[in-house]
Amino acid sequence: MTGTLEGRDEAQIIASILAGDSQQFHQLIRPYERSVYAMALSMLKNAADAEDVAQEAFLKAFRNLGSFRADSKFSTWLVSITLNEARSRLRRNQAAKIESLDIPSEEQGHVSPTLLRDWREVPSEILERQEVRLLLQEAVLALPEIYREVFLLREVEEMSVKEAAEALGVSDASVKVRLHRARIMLQKKLAPELKKASSQKRRWLPWL
Amino acid sequence: MVIDCKHVWDHISGYLDGTLEASVLEQVQKHLEHCEICSAILDSTRNILILTADERVFELPLGFSDRLHARLEAEIRGITPE
pLDDT tens, A144-176? Predict the structure, then answer.
């Protein structure tokens, strides 16, 4: 995560909030807005619910700030709160629906990538196209939950294996296995689609 | 030892994270030198990870920050957390 405050500054801000300067909470959380929202979106899969859950998570973080222990990172703690909020929202939403069937067991079989012979690097400029951003977002959101969580924490939130394991309450080994599968699943789904998308760009905009 | 493609796929994640044991890394690298399929799988996976991690993929909705801070302002003013 870029733009976060140094651990020490963060600890000072937290101390002054706990001492009564609650306005500083605004400053404390600014660097984490996107990561909390992305986490909530990846769980809820809809922008309105995700925004609501993100707000609730920040409020909960404020109310429980006194129970934050400096031996974990503030960002990890915040993500754990977000995960809990998202999960309880999902439970409430699903109370009337049939339980989701997309949760595979840890032992689920081999995941194979898409076989290709050549890969032409797709540059980041392609993300200027909204349909490509959506393509990527939807592919991540379509991952089974246990893979999606790990993928978000490691690739989008840039957490270490240890931090992700702590936030999810699973072992380091599980994080590694799940991350591997998530990456291969995304390669399988996205490699052909990105290939198509980038060749379309060349066809439509030959001057680029 | 020579390893086949399927074994190489099992190590793609470790390869990208730089966490493979030296002996495994050597086997994978040897395989990649002559296998264009595995090389393309590796390159495409790396490429896809860079793209999905880009900030633009999970962008905040317009006005998200304003709404968040307005709500915080309304709910936390004058309160000290526990």
Answer: 999 999 999 999 888 999 999 988 889 999 999
* Ranges of residues in chain B whose predicted pLDDT is under 50: none
CB-based contact B50 A124, cutoff 8 Å:
yes
Chain A residue at shortest CA distance from B73: A23
Identity of the residue in A47, A62, A119 whose CB atom sits nearest the CB atom of B61: A47
A114 CB neighbours in chain B (<8 A) are 41, 44
Question: Residue for token digits 């990649």?
Answer: B32
Nearest CB to B71; choose among A55, A137, A155: A55
Interface test with A, best of B5, B47, B50, B77 (most A CBs within 10 A): B47
Which class for B32: exposed (0-12), middle (13-18), buried (19 or more C-beta within 10 A)?
middle
